[in-house]
Amino acid sequence: MTLVPLTQAVVLAAGLGTRLRPITDTMPKPLVPVAGKPMIDYGLDALADAGVSRAVVNVHHFADRMEAHLAAYPRLDIIISDERAELMNSGGGLKKGLSLLDPGIAYVMNADLFWIGEKHGSPTNLQKLAGFFNPERMDMALLCVPLERTTGHNGKRDFQLDQDGRLSRYVDGDNPVVYAGAIVLHSSLLDDAPDDAFNLNIYFDRAISKGRLFGVVMDGEWITVGTPDALPEAEAVIARHSTGV
């Protein structure tokens, strides 16, 4: 179990957001406002609420605008991982980002996925995930959500969550879950990773093959905004939560 709060994170924010065009023709996806708040700020706030003080954020699409926004974000010390020259995909971006932090355990967050409706007075979803992570048994711990508590998702079931908390790729089973876009891992997991672009799914599958991919089910409602049509639905869910309806 993690004995001290995690204080460092990597936020993956360099994607092109092609499915969100034409909105992303004029701005980076993480800065698209959802209910008046830039998408990435939901994730940054969640990290700050969990006790994180320093985060690496990778940038590529409209990188100057991302840097300006992140420089003004008040709650975290943010380090830029510059991918202007070449997109590194999820795995390459994560390895490069981790190299800018201290070796050790860290959060990993996707900038375009977030959640609302955590229970007040209880540990946050990220704090629960950190407390669950045990590097002796696990390569990674993933935050997960049941399909019925997702908004804007395409309906895909990512993993099967077994009674002992282990994850496997979903084929069948009675506890399918969606990957909610947050991970806790030890930076040494990627020590053997290539230095160029690669997909983090390689490490998910490697961990599954060793029985070392685990998951925790989050509280609240999970939101993704992949297309322009998903924006009104996301904002309606946020409005319902804010009014308690």
Task: Report a brief summary of the structure.
This protein is 25% helix and 27% strand. It has 245 residues and is an alpha/beta fold. Strands 1, 4, 5, 6, 8, 10, 11, 12 and 13 form a nine-stranded mixed sheet that branches. It has a three-stranded mixed sheet with strand order 7-14-9. A two-stranded antiparallel ribbon has the order 2-3.
List keywords for this structure.
14 strands, 245 residues, 9-stranded mixed β-sheet, Spore Coat Polysaccharide Biosynthesis Protein SpsA, Chain A, single chain, 6 helices, alpha/beta, globular
Low-confidence spans: pLDDT under 50, at least 5 residues? none
- Provide the CATH superfamily: Spore Coat Polysaccharide Biosynthesis Protein SpsA, Chain A
The end-to-end span amounts to 37 Å
Strand content range: 25-35%
Q: Write down the CATH topology.
A: Spore Coat Polysaccharide Biosynthesis Protein SpsA, Chain A
Query: What's the CATH architecture name?
Result: Alpha-Beta Complex
Return the domain count: 1
The largest sheet is: 9 strands, mixed
Structural class: alpha/beta
| Number of beta-strand segments | 14
C-alpha Rg, in Å?
17 Å
Helix content: 25-40%
**What's the overall average pLDDT, rounded?**
92
- Helical element count? 6
User: What gross morphology would you assign?
Assistant: globular
Written account of the structure:
This is MurNAc alpha-1-phosphate uridylyltransferase. Its EC number is 2.7.7.-. InterPro entries: GlmU-like, NTP_transferase_dom, Nucleotide-diphossugar_trans. It holds the Pfam family NTP_transferase. It comes from Rhizobium wenxiniae. This protein is an alpha/beta fold and about 240 residues long. It has a single domain, classed as Spore Coat Polysaccharide Biosynthesis Protein SpsA, Chain A (Alpha-Beta Complex). Helices cover about 25% and strands about 25% of the residues. The protein has 6 helices and 14 strands. Strands 1, 4, 5, 6, 8, 10, 11, 12 and 13 form a 9-stranded mixed beta sheet that branches. The protein has a 3-stranded mixed beta sheet with strand order 7-14-9. The protein has a two-stranded antiparallel ribbon with strand order 2-3. A hairpin with a 2-residue loop joins strand 2 (about 35) and strand 3 (about 35-40). It is globular. The termini are far apart. About 45% of the residues are buried. The mean pLDDT is about 90.
